[in-house]
Specification:
The structure is a homodimer.
Chain A lengths: L19 H5 L15 E7 L5 E7 L1 H5 L3 E6 H7 L3 E3 L5 E3 L5 E2 L5 E7 L2 H9 L2 E6 L6 H4 L18 E8 L1 H10 L2 E9 L11 E6 L6 E5 L4 H12 L6 E4 L15 H13 L3 E4 L2 H7 L6 E9 L5 E11 L28 E9 L16 H19 L3 H8 L8 E2 L5 E2 L4 H12 L1 H14 L4 E10 L19 E7 L5 E5 L8 H13 L6 E4 L17 H28 L6 E4 L2 E4 L2 E7 H8 L14 E6 L8 E10 L6 E11 L6 H20 L31 E4 L17 H18 L13 H8 L6 H4 L2
Parallel strand pairs in A: 1-14, 12-13, 16-17, 22-23, 29-30
Antiparallel strand pairs in A: 1-7, 2-6, 2-8, 3-7, 4-5, 9-17, 10-15, 11-12, 11-14, 15-16, 18-19, 20-28, 21-22, 21-27, 24-25, 25-26, 28-29
Helix pairs in contact in A: 10-18, 14-15, 15-16, 17-18
């Protein structure tokens, strides 16, 4: 790991995060730190049933509680036009259930009281009569003709059905498969997981009864989208809504959607005329906020005998829970799962996905998935390893033979996506060099022969992500496009403020985006204030998720800084009394060509722009610019990961011994922050591969209501990461950056699982589903004799 | 007075003020309403001497006070580079005096304590040893060779001297005077007055020790200028300063400059790490914040025997107090006093003004003076009446003969100012019609003959203002130009937010500016939020004073709305799939020419702009615009006022019986607000004419420290105003508006004084100086027999 030097670069490079001054000293300001005079507290009553009809709700005892100020039910909301709220996929979700409850933990009522304790106490005395209904817990049950009906699809035609979509050319794919030497097939499950950010969701809502202005401090990754959704759905006037996202304690997609608690806090404030705070506890967050994955996948891969991959064929049953919360790309119907063709040069591919309703909490954009790329990458990288197993080939060698070659970029995939740039073989080679791949295989052989110590496994994954949701041609959310805005204002004294629509949840935006401006203008990052998280202070945009901050807002920032530079050129030309055409830019100043001493710094130009300097007609006296940026294309970060594990066959315990990650996210603005993002994502990948699963029993009871039940990785489970990098700038981004927020989460689970399965190979294990807990590994080994012929390939 | 109808016009017209919902219910939020956790309180130690050397300051007893957190003196400030602060005229003022005190009430030390009471108590035990120096109280003494030295001028050459400037052609004026039949001369004093806003000045400063961000809630009319001044002078980084002006309880120019208390609150917060509140009491505001006027004027007017005015010649001695706080136009050295040629078609004019230091508090931009136009208008309007007296002519008749004629506009004055538009004779005729001028003169004659009742006087004034400080060619403040910014953002649902750099102090900006957008775009004013008073939320600009909000920010608003309309046209053309050239605008929508049903409303266009609609290359997906507006010229509101008074010769008591005001401020955005501004200004005019004067004794002791000593008018002194209007749109403003904030204050004092002098005419009174208190009037009548020959003209 490289040391961060403690100086401020005038542009890209390592520097300490500007926000850490407050975080390290414990002075971050989170939603729960917002305390307003007269503030009341809310609590949510949740359904104990996964599926039940509501017969009646009696709130009289709760209302009689001396500290209770209001009890809100679905009936209250009807009157306010807030009974249903949109999910990000054009579905709607009941804010508070009136007719039925559809998952355990669903919101039924909301109590507002003087304090949090009284609100909780009052929940106990709300009398809800339920008539239990049979639940659907397994997605495979949902479409059976006699399955209990949770909901019908949007057209009202098919019970429990949400969508069918497909990508690729089915006929051509079948042809390719028919002609292949080898077809390897594998069923696999990507289990339901939860992003589990350290900060749970919550809001403080204040509807000022005098001004009619609603201010909502809220844990959201997308403040502007939230504001517009409140306005569109509830008819609250958009100019009278201010959404403030202060510091956010992690998001990972969990904080994109609107949850009933947010809406209830708003309604509580409307009803009482006081500010109302609502904060989830850990159980509520784990039980009712957006899950991820829960995909039953059947994959097939076709190849020649010598390992040339010809095609991939995939069928997915997608469990979206009780409401379709997943942001649904509408313009490109196959969605991002379309990049299931991976990083390989193949001839044909086809994918079909069916989405169904089940009696579980709604799935979301959640968990660093770039809209289902995580599942797709895992699937294809497992399939490649299964093929290697079947062919008896080294999985590295198999990948080498099939990776896209540098000269193929820009590369249009078999499902129509244009990969921007890359040198994939170089990334894999670098990872293998860092890992010492050949030596590792030697060691593995030695150990297998000697039988000493635990089983050793080596797993590889190669991933390509499609991130930077923004291009008009690809998608929208609820009719809103996916552009992001940036405003850059250079004050008279040459200090600057950059206002962005994206929203940090800990990624270091205040540093990264200041560095982009610094690079373009030559103003020190220390002299640039980055403002986000307040709809009153920032331009409209769709927020931060799907690794889109650098691809979209980063693009907007570079463009807006260049516009300021061009304005500065005109002002400088008036100051220097020369034509703008005679000026030349050097970071931080414009000077007259051939006369380097003649220059005016950006600071001098800023003061002059605000002064009484005579400027050409139509040129206004300031040094500001705005931009709303729609990227021309997605960006395609990629990487090669190698994981080395030790597996104890007696206990099933997996230890990740080494992890090598070579990432290519294009130009790196602040390498230290990039590495931090990779570290976090790798930890998450280990968590998903080895321990995380959000389980339910057959009645739909949620079994992961605390961190004792739902396990997330700590530093104890993580090795000392070994990082490498290649840099192939994206030609579709102003500064060539691609984004890195989810890369490691997307890419790493397959490397870990491939490593574990590789370790178990001597026992004839070809596949095992995540999470590879000690129990799961131990079970996989039962009744399987050790086969030395398999151990040594 | 016209009734305000309670509906919202889609543009200009009468509507209730949007801000009144909170003001009427007592929910305005003023600086003193800001209370932060852990906030400390500051108090200022002030000099008891008008002029003294500071021998020593001993703060040890104050520092020992158990509730005192800090005692700040000039020495503390040296270390922070905050010892001197700029005034608006390139002068500097000691924040806390170290060497000398130069006026009674000057700031010497600042105590920060747990509460206001402890802070005040601690002031008592600060031991300052003074060595008294002789003071200069009368400006006429300041330049005498043996006068005590307060300061030297900026070049260090001449003691107590600030500036000499002149305007007009002295030689040509002398020629005109030499050839004239009649020359009337008069010395007059425009007394020192104080704006006396209901809310005194104050600030809450919070330097966050974690983020290094300074937030200052402050009573300022110019938040951006304040921020830049803090940055320029103290080197505080501008992007780390946020100046918030919440609701402001009246400004009238008193709240333009930076006062030492503001700076001390900031320093107090830096030193203690806590928020610090400082609020003046009434005495402090009256004693030490910016005064106005205090001009000793000698005027001469030359005319032909039949009343054709030929020229005006003026000498002024301007008392600016101990520091030159007056905003000083630097590019047009004669400043706004140059419009002393009034509203008349004359041949030549010359004016010379000398500014001097005296031992009084610094004068300011203060008090609705449009940079000294108030004094100029008073001077010339009194001179015209003196000429009428000398010629034995009716003053209305004399004015009629000399007013500029409509066909002379645009009119370039003898001092080079370009008056934009007007029909002056029509305004005077209308005022005379409303007043029933001929009947009033008849009544006056009858009363004089009968001797019944009090003396009756009829006074006229005609004024032309030059307002809208902004054109680059005219002026700057401290090197900053005088442009103002506007940003208009139309949200996806078609509601809008307008962000302005100007700052309301009660003028109804939230309503007026919303109406300009409504007029241009067809969005209801109710759907437009106007934001000002927060440097973090608004574009840069110089703020509100000198009636410049409508001329400058109003222009910016109209321009920015038109830019949004043009953007909307491009979006609509993409929606309707026609060329933009085929579209026609009708308020609120674009439609295809010849097909009125085809239109898209601005709200539909806003949603589409934020959606995935394909827009032409280079067109970004939003409906926002920004503008920084430098007006092409000043605007010239004008008006004709007629005042009728009754004067009791026994007591000197003046009663204003009637007051007719015909104002032309160009296009009226909200006539109710315009009338409110006129009402307020007329009351102020009566106050200045009849009661207000900030007096000092010969030792420089300030004699007006409360509203028992310094009298301001109430509704008891005001008649039921009789208003009229003419509308000649300004060709130099996008919507033809001129501004009206100071018109009545500027125009009315002369009408009242002319009326009183007219009433006293039977006693041979030709002039009497303001304020015409009962004592002053009574004195003017002493030893003057009633002359019936003078009573009946």
């Amino acid at each position: 790991m490289t040391t961060t030097e403690n100086h401020t670069p005038m542009g890209f490079g390592r520097m300490h995060r500007k926000e850490d001054a407050r975080f390290i000293r414990g002075h971050g300001q989170y939603v729960d730190d917002v305390n307003l005079p007269g503030m009341l507290h809310g609590a949510v009553l949740r359904s104990p049933h996964a599926h039940a009809r509501i017969v009646s709700i009696d709130t009289s005892a709760a209302e009689a509680h001396p500290k209770v100020k209001a009890v809100i039910t679905g009936q209250t909301l009807e009157g306010l036009n807030l009974a249903w709220m949109p999910t990000l996929s054009h579905d709607v979700q009941a804010v508070l259930a009136t007719d039925k409850v559809r998952f355990q933990g669903q919101e039924v009522a909301f109590v507002v009281a003087d304090d949090r304790y009284a609100a909780r106490d009052a929940l106990e005395v709300i009398d809800v009569e339920y008539e239990a209904l049979p639940p659907v817990v397994d997605a495979r049950r949902a479409l059976e003709p006699d399955a209990p009906v949770i909901r019908t699809d949007i057209d009202g035609k098919r019970d429990n059905h949400i969508f069918d979509w497909e990508a690729g050319d089915a006929a051509r794919t079948d042809e390719v498969f028919a002609s292949a030497d080898v077809v390897s097939a594998q069923d696999m499950l990507y289990p339901r997981v939860h992003p589990a950010p350290m900060e749970t969701c919550g809001a403080v809502a204040h509807m000022d009864p005098i001004t009619g202005k609603l201010t909502v401090w809220t844990t959201t990754q997308a403040p502007h989208a939230h504001r517009t959704l409140y306005a569109l759905v509830a008819g609250l006037p958009e100019h009278k809504i201010r959404v403030i996202s202060p510091d956010i304690g992690g998001g990972f997609g969990n904080k994109v959607g609107i949850y009933p608690g947010y809406v209830c806090a708003v309604v509580g404030s409307i009803v009482t005329g006081k500010p109302v705070k609502w904060m989830e506890d850990r159980s509520e967050n784990l039980m009712s906020t957006s899950f991820a994955r829960d995909y039953h996948m059947h994959g097939e891969i076709a190849a020649t005998r010598d390992g040339k991959i010809l095609g991939v064929r995939v069928n997915v049953l997608a469990d979206h829970g009780a409401f379709n919360g997943t942001a649904q790309p509408t313009k490109f119907p196959a969605g991002f799962f379309s990049v299931f063709t991976g990083s390989y040069d193949i001839e044909a591919a086809h994918c079909a996905v069916t989405g169904v309703y089940t009696n579980k909490a709604p799935g979301g954009v959640a968990y660093a998935c770039s809209f289902r790329i995580t599942e797709a990458v895992y699937l294809v990288e497992r399939l490649v390893d299964v093929l290697a197993y079947d062919l008896g080939m080294d999985p590295a060698e198999l990948r080498k033979r099939n990776l896209l070659r540098p000269e193929q970029f820009p590369y249009v995939s078999k499902t129509g996506w244009e990969y921007d740039s890359g040198d994939y073989p170089r990334a894999l080679s670098q990872a293998m060099d860092i890992a010492g791949y050949a030596e590792l295989r030697e060691e593995q052989k030695r150990r297998a022969v000697s039988g000493d110590g635990p089983l050793m496994g080596i797993g590889i994954s190669f991933f390509t992500e499609a991130v930077g949701a923004g291009p008009r041609k690809h998608m929208d959310i609820l009719g809103l496009g996916m552009a992001d805005g940036a405003e850059l204002r250079v004050h008279p004294t040459g200090k600057a403020v950059l206002r962005l629509s994206c929203q940090s949840q800990g990624q270091g935006h205040e540093t990264t985006f200041a560095q982009i401006v610094a690079e373009e203008l030559g103003i020190s990052p220390d002299d640039i204030e980055v403002v986000h998280g307040d709809t009153d202070q920032t331009p409209f945009g769709l927020g931060t998720y799907g690794s889109r901050s650098t691809p979209v807002s980063g693009g907007a920032t570079a463009v807006v800084a260049r516009r300021v530079r061009e304005r500065a050129k005109i002002v400088a030309s008036a100051m220097l009394e020369v034509s703008p055409d005679d000026l030349e830019w050097e970071k931080g100043r414009w000077f007259v060509q051939g006369d380097p001493d003649s220059g005016k710094t950006i600071q001098e130009i800023a003061l002059a722009a605000h002064s009484d300097l005579e400027l050409p007609d139509g040129v206004e006296g300031h040094l500001d610019a705005t931009c709303v940026y729609n990227p021309p294309n997605l960006t395609y970060p990629f990487g090669a990961y190698i994981c080395v594990v030790d597996v104890d066959p007696e206990t099933g315990q997996v230890k990740v011994r080494r992890f090598v990650a070579v990432d290519d996210c294009g130009v790196r603005i602040n390498p230290t922050i990039v590495e931090g993002q990779v570290h976090g994502g790798l930890a998450e990948g280990i968590g998903m591969a080895l321990m995380q699963v959000m389980a339910f029993d057959e009645d739909g009871n949620h079994l992961g209501g605390s961190f004792m039940d739902y396990l997330i990785p700590t530093s104890m489970e993580c090795p000392s990461w070994e990082l490498g990098e290649t840099v192939t700038p994206s030609p579709h981004h102003p500064i060539g950056a691609k984004g890195v927020g989810e890369s490691a989460t997307v890419g790493s689970p397959a490397a870990v699982v491939n490593a574990v399965v590789d370790a178990l190979k001597p026992y004839g294990v070809r596949h095992a589903d995540m999470p590879l807990t000690p129990a799961a590994v131990w079970r996989a080994l039962q009744n399987r004799p050790l086969r030395t012929d398999l151990a040594i390939t």
